[in-house]
Write a structure and sequence with these properties.
Structural class: mainly alpha
Number of helices: 9
Number of domains: 1
Radius of gyration: 18 Å
Helix content: over 70%
Strand content: under 5%
């Protein structure tokens, strides 16, 4: 991609990361107001943040019935995720893996992103009518989103150390990938919703996008790849 395309991609990924920071907590709060998610509020760490945040959010959680509000924020998150998928695809195309582990990690991560995108897209479409009990919702979650998330976690956690050892830039993305699994688990368990745990993925690739926006890297053919021609 040329410099202009890099800047467009960078802007898209950064905006998606910022949007996810707003949408993911609202998605979790909306979930706690549904019939299936209400029991999650019994957890002390969940109640600690969700109750005051719910009061602060106000009309952002009450503009429609609980299931419809939840569906709205899940659909919003589905619109943000393609930026992550495209960023991963571009980064992989520009990167020459240095080891079999790195090559396998990229493949696992990409497979997870594709499955996750297909799953959340299917669920978002199934929720257009606001029926959280629609059969396609379970298909999207269980058959696509769940394995996609697992593959993303494994692929990211394997890929991060490989990129750190190779001197890949930006380092912040490599570190975030390395810490994806513990951050996801901590965020999901403490907050009570795995959408918040997914924020680490958005932030990792938002850092990639921010790097693309820097004048020193804009327009370079391989702005984020360490030299591998030795």
């Amino acid at each position: 991609m040329d410099g202009r395309a890099d800047r467009r991609l960078g802007t898209w990924v950064v905006v998606a990361g910022a949007g996810a920071c707003l949408v993911a907590p609202l998605l979790g709060l909306a979930w706690f107001r549904t019939r299936d998610g209400a029991e999650a509020l019994a957890g002390p760490t969940v109640a600690w943040w969700a109750e005051p945040a719910g009061r602060w959010a106000g009309r952002l959680l009450t503009f429609a019935p609980p299931e419809r509000v939840y569906a709205t924020y899940l659909q919003a998150l589905a619109l943000l995720f393609p930026a992550v998928l495209v960023a991963v695809l571009v980064a992989r195309r520009r990167r020459t893996p240095r080891s079999r582990t790195e090559r396998a990690a990229w493949a696992v991560l990409l497979a997870g992103c594709v499955l996750g995108q297909a799953g959340i897209g299917l669920v978002a479409l199934a929720l257009v009518g606001g029926d959280a009990g629609a059969p396609l919702v379970d298909v999207g979650f269980i058959a696509l989103m769940l394995p996609g998330t697992l593959l993303q976690l494994v692929g990211s956690t394997l890929l991060g150390p490989c990129l750190l050892r190779a001197g890949w830039r930006p380092r912040s993305t490599a570190w975030a990938l390395t810490l994806t699994l513990p951050c996801f688990l901590a965020g999901s368990v403490l907050s009570g919703h795995n959408g918040i745990g997914q924020l680490v993925v958005f932030l990792a690739w938002a850092a990639y996008g921010r790097h693309l926006l820097r004048p020193a890297t804009a327009g370079q053919g391989r702005p984020l790849v360490a030299d591998v021609t030795r």
